[in-house]
TrEMBL record:
Record gene name: thiC
Pfam families associated with the record: ThiC-associated, ThiC_Rad_SAM
Binding site for Zn(2+): H400, H464
Binding site for [4Fe-4S] cluster: C544, C547, C552
Signal peptide: none
Annotated organism of origin: Kitasatospora paracochleata
Catalytic activities: 5-amino-1-(5-phospho-beta-D-ribosyl)imidazole + S-adenosyl-L-methionine = 4-amino-2-methyl-5-(phosphooxymethyl)pyrimidine + CO + 5'-deoxyadenosine + formate + L-methionine + 3 H(+)
Region (Disordered): 1-34, 93-116
Record's cofactor remark: Binds 1 [4Fe-4S] cluster per subunit. The cluster is coordinated with 3 cysteines and an exchangeable S-adenosyl-L-methionine.
Cofactor: [4Fe-4S] cluster
Protein name: Phosphomethylpyrimidine synthase
Keywords: 4Fe-4S, Iron, Iron-sulfur, Lyase, Metal-binding, S-adenosyl-L-methionine, Thiamine biosynthesis, Zinc
UniProt pathway annotation: Cofactor biosynthesis; thiamine diphosphate biosynthesis
Amino acid sequence: MTTFDAHQPAQNTVGSATTGYPTPAWRKAYRDGSRPDLRVPYREVRLTNGKSVPLYDTSGPYTDPAYEADVRRGLPALRDAWIRQRGDVEEYEGREARPEDDGIKHTAPRGGNLRNLDAVFPGRPRRPLRGRDGASVTQLGYARRGIITPEMEFVALREGLEPEFVRDEVARGRAVIPVNVNHPEVEPAIIGTNFLVKINANIGNSAVTSSIEEEVEKMTWATRWGADTVMDLSTGRNIHTTREWILRNSPVPIGTVPLYQALEKVDGRAEELSWDVYRDTIIEQCEQGVDYMTVHAGVLLRYVPLTARRKTGIVSRGGSIMAAWCLAHHQENFLYTNFEELCDILRTYDVTFSLGDGLRPGSIADANDEAQFAELQTLGELGRIARERDVQVMIEGPGHVPMHKIKENMDLQKEICDEAPFYTLGPLTTDVAPGYDHITSGIGAAMIAWWGTAMLCYVTPKEHLGLPNRDDVKTGVITYKIAAHAADLAKGHPGAQAWDDALSDARFEFRWEDQFNLALDPETARDFHDETLPAEPAKTAHFCSMCGPKFCSMKISQKIRDEHGDGATAVESGYDADALAGMQAKSEEFAAQGNRVYLPLAD
Ligand code: IRN
Ligand code: FE2
């Protein structure tokens, strides 16, 4: 059983990170900003023809060979000077940490409280920062005052856009930059419909299957493959400590659902939750550096009965907790009734709201029903209150929605929520494929992102079935990167297509190495190729294993084009007799086996 003694440094083996890129052709590079401490990382894919392709990169310092990773020290505090130079924050004593923060009630910890955390996480003495005298220190507040912060300049360079455009989008509430003043390690990213579509990967332990080091490892693993943000959904023991390790080592914004930890503090009994316990948990997490928080404040008492005749009721964990509380007390949701105070707390740390969709549909049958859209109305109202108070806001969305009902979600959200960034969970477009829900949801994610969703919460193949392992995390991230990039292309995001063009050129010119290295997942591309053509020369050969050397359509059309100009055909060109004979033979071979594209398996 875990006790505090288990966390004394001598025995502490917590934490490991995935370092280095999956291929040596990827190199970490930086774009210089207007000041020496503003360097924006990107990934340079070096090609065999001497050219290179710059790609957005979320992997943090871990992929910089000049950086020596040490998870016990944490990442460099990139934003520390930016935050302090604004002159509007103060260090303060902070909330007394308590054993129950880590779900440990009855063990008296050495040293009396989690100041002990300095032993648990050796990296940095922690006196938290907050806005001086309750000052608004949010990116929204600065944007409204016409200030372009280093964070805004950073995301502008990262996305290839003008800093003034970034400031304006943030000021209107159409984009958010989730950056807590207590998470100086974060490389700022922007979430908004006019920027690259972002993806979130969820990690989090459960009492039985996962440890702190596994969670830190999952975080670095997910960002290495392209997760733009990570949500720590830990429950059970060591929540506080796990989160500390993740935050101090995370180059991407970290989100949480504070309600989960609040519930642990009352031993899992929803009816015993209170505003006081919740408020205390929020402050604890604000001081640690959580960048955005899911808050299920739209689950109103009067909406709960609307779910009674649903096929799958309330599927949101946070939503069901709040519904249970509302029914037990027959009172209005305390997150709703205390929302303004909540805003005032989040504003002094610059924590971004992710207003939770506690009544999202959990089945195709329940999509777009009254309960779902009633809650959306309330989320719109709360979003306005938050922005009036300078707090950045995203709105969470579904869920399970068939394709023909997806667009209505986006249209309504835009209208009701004043274009605040939409952050959706898929949606899953059918219920019939457990084991493949990264795909059922990847379809919906691509569609809703095309129509304007700013961030997609990934779904792994283990959805509905179990906890994702390392491979599932990678599969979920890659699937969602595909959905996000497909949407970037469809939306015509400037520069999105250059990546596709580079890969297509490599494919057409048989630069196999370049084709692998430009892939979202070079390892899998290379492995699949090598399964049938493992030899080294095959990687420069002008054919793949599908058609063989002579009859490759890409090779033939390239040759025709070279010799006879664009638009010429093999016959017009008097194309080499050998090839024509070969093609004739191939055609006969194809007819002989019944003109079937797929052959039955031998045996
Ligand atoms: C995203 C959009 N809608 C829901 N999500 C995510 O679902 C949310 O951000 C969090 O990561 C996860 C937990 O949701 P519930 O089940 O507590 O609502
Ligand atoms: Fe589901």
